[in-house]
Hints:
By secondary structure, this protein is of the alpha+beta class.
Amino acid sequence: MLTSRSVDTLGRAREQEEVSYSFANKMGRIVLLALEEAAGSESMRAILSAARMQERLDGIPPNNFAAEFPFEELAAIQRAMDELYGPRTGRRLARRTGKACFRIGAEDMRPVLGLADLLFRILPLQMRARIGFEVLAQAFNRFSDHVVRLDEDERYFQWVTERCGVCWGRTSDTPCCDLVVGLLEEALYWLSGGASFFIEESSCIAAGDPVCTILIGKRPLAKDISPED
């Protein structure tokens, strides 16, 4: 007998079979450059081969905003990481790749994102984080078919993804959007000037949940942030 959750899962599976969604080429380019930084050139080639993406071995996507980097390719890269290195090591690599994505993307897309260093130096930490996350969410929503919003309560910012290009087409017993977790970790590191925060994915479409949700603590775990922040 089908439960409401299994019906929802089947519905999402049909959507993922019938509809094609993409990231901008620029975003796919950033992912592959980040993968090369995190894994090394030889390991990246092994991952792309395992993902059956041989065409990417000859060249990464062009540096433009055409929507031509399919969700399926990013999902295939992450599946290949798990297959080659095992889920634990594969997810650590995905997280490192996400961190590199932020570093490369923040520089490459700085004119588009409009992040002003001076602004972030003078604003309180929570406001810097809120603005930074909103800018990142707007970039995803503007330059891809990935759909994300920022919610919050007293303790957490909540990065809520309604259509996720990171776990697209995947099934998992546990949340598996480690690349985005790494990206948000690095964003927080930059926004806070080097502090550590609680960050954890609490729900995931790949695990059968209606949305992917990443919880981000509002207060730093590090002791080197002044109380007024």
